[in-house]
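ok, trying the design again with the full structure, not the truncated one.
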């Protein structure tokens, strides 16, 4: 592996641990991982793009809920619309701590907002959001706030036979809209909180139900296994559950590394446009 590998990463233990793990997993020996088992999974919010003060998908959702409250002011008396109107950030932080009441109200509202919506219509709404909405701090579309070091890590893993998946608590169908252009991975390699679908009136539409609840906490390894039939041989993220996946009863997972060992990349001015999607450079 030459110095051109992971060029945006600082020389240090995090970068070296990644290189050592990839080398060991792809070289015959005690830590070798068969090609079919080379599954790499990554969190999104705070790992692949910005997360503070809230994950970007909340911007998309809040705009939809704002329109709903305007059309029906009575919604302002119930959660999560009440928290949105009152700018109660503490309520939404309950998602990270998985407070049952918060999670239940969010799932109900998510499902209700887009129930009966055909996939193409939902995709069009997300694409419009990616084109027209800008992060208030950096003044650019959210999809440009992707960390270049993580895309370099994707390249490294793919070059060594790993299949890369994104597994996030965010909406699966939301992320799939920009996955191919932004991360360079097939949309079917995105795992997340997923709406159920139903065949109605000769077409597929979103159902007012979710498949398996939120993709948070233990839901992550559960959803990964349901989607791939395997536990990851490499997992990257910024939360305890991402690290916990490496301790699962899989013979070689314990040698894998996570991106939590690196400092969070700081978004900076984008590099000149290239065949790759624009993204913000940073050092890990």
């Amino acid at each position: 592996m030459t110095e051109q590998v992971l060029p945006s990463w600082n020389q240090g233990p995090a970068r070296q641990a990644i290189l050592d793990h990839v080398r060991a997993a792809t070289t015959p020996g005690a830590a070798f991982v068969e090609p079919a088992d080379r599954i790499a999974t990554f969190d999104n919010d705070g790992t692949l793009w910005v997360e503070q003060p809230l994950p970007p998908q909340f911007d998309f959702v809040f705009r939809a809920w704002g329109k709903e409250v305007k059309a029906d002011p009575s919604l302002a008396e119930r959660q999560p619309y009440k928290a949105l109107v009152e700018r109660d950030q503490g309520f939404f932080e309950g998602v990270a701590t998985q407070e049952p009441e918060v999670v239940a109200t969010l799932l109900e509202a998510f499902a209700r907002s887009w129930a009966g919506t055909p996939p193409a219509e939902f995709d069009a709404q997300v694409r419009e959001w990616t084109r027209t909405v800008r992060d208030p701090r950096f003044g650019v579309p959210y999809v440009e706030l992707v960390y270049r070091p993580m895309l370099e890590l994707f390249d490294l893993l793919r070059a060594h036979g790993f299949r890369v998946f994104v597994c996030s608590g965010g909406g699966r169908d939301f992320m799939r809209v920009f996955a191919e252009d932004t991360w360079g991975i097939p949309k079917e390699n995105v795992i997340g909180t997923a709406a159920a679908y139903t065949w109605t009136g000769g077409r597929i539409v979103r159902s007012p139900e979710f498949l398996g609840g939120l993709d948070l906490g233990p839901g992550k390894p559960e959803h990964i296994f349901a989607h791939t039939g395997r536990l990851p041989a490499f997992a990257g993220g910024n939360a305890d559950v991402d690290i916990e996946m490496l301790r699962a009863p899989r013979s070689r997972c314990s040698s894998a590394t996570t991106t939590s060992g690196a400092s969070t990349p700081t978004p900076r001015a984008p590099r000149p446009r290239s065949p790759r999607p624009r993204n913000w450079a940073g050092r890990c």
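Keeping the full-length input from now on. Strands lie at 39-42, 163-171, 190-200, 203-211, 234-236.
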